[in-house]
Amino acid sequence: MPKSRLRKKADYTPPPSTATAVKISSGRSWVAPLMLVFFLVGLVWIVTYYVTSGDWPIGSWGNWNILAGFGFIAAGFGVSTQWK
C-alpha cells in the first residue's frame, strides 16, 4: 500500500504585540486579612468558651457563645466571596 504524503504545516507565530501589559489592581487588598481575622476571632471565641467551661467570653450567654463564634466564622466566609 502506498504511503501518504506528509504535510508540514508552518508553526503558528503570534503577531507582534504593540500594546504594553497593564497590571490591573483589584483594589480589594483588605479582603484576605479581614477574612482571616473573622476566622481567627470565631475560633478563639469557641476555644475560649470551651477552655473556661463557659465563664468567658460572655458568661450570661451560655451556649449562645458557640453560635457567636460560628457567626464570626460565617462572616469570614461571607467576606471571602469578595476575594478576587
From TrEMBL:
GO biological process, one term: cell division
Transmembrane segments: 30-52, 64-83
Subcellular location(s) of the protein: Cell membrane
Coiled coil: none
Annotated segments matching region Disordered: 1-21
Pfam families cross-referenced by the UniProt entry: CrgA (PF06781)
Membrane topology note: Multi-pass membrane protein
Keywords assigned by UniProt, alphabetized: Cell cycle, Cell division, Cell membrane, Membrane, Transmembrane, Transmembrane helix
InterPro entries: CrgA (IPR009619)
NCBIfam families in the record: PRK02251.2-1
UniProt function note: Involved in cell division.
Record-stated family: Belongs to the CrgA family.
Protein name, per record: Cell division protein CrgA
Species in which this protein is naturally found: Kitasatospora saccharophila
